[in-house]
Design brief:
Helix content is about 85%, strand content about 0%. The protein is mostly helical and about 160 residues long.
Length: about 160
Amino acid sequence: METNSVKKSVLKCSYGQTILHCILGQCLQISFLNGIFIEAAYTVTVSAFVFLMARPIMELFIDKSSVEVIDMGVSYMRVIAPLYLLSGSGNIVQGFFRGIGNLKVTLISSILNISVRVVSVFFMVAVADGSFSSLALACGLGWMSMNLLEIPLIVKRMKRI
């Protein structure tokens, strides 16, 4: 009887989970944080490049004589480049929830993202007479709303592991 209780206590870790579950949970948390770090490093690097090289990038695709189009593209790229951090972090969180089979979170956050973008574009362009860069801001607002929904859920989920 005593031996059986010793085995049970050895095989348990916090919150009544098995040691295997705790090890897997720690691996999951470490992998998730590594993914966030890699995404942030990559996005900052590429976004800085795009921000600084927006005009030459636009000139690769648009004739240099189309100055107005190039200016619009440069403006758009300089607004959207830093906002890609929001997109990347949202994609990592969505990948986590897809991986554990919780597709409701990804569905709801995607619908929220799209809805916020549509409403934002309508308001910025139709009502506030916004510029072409308003489209980039609308994307950023959509990604921000997705993150605001998902981040508390991922924090809550990670605490349970």
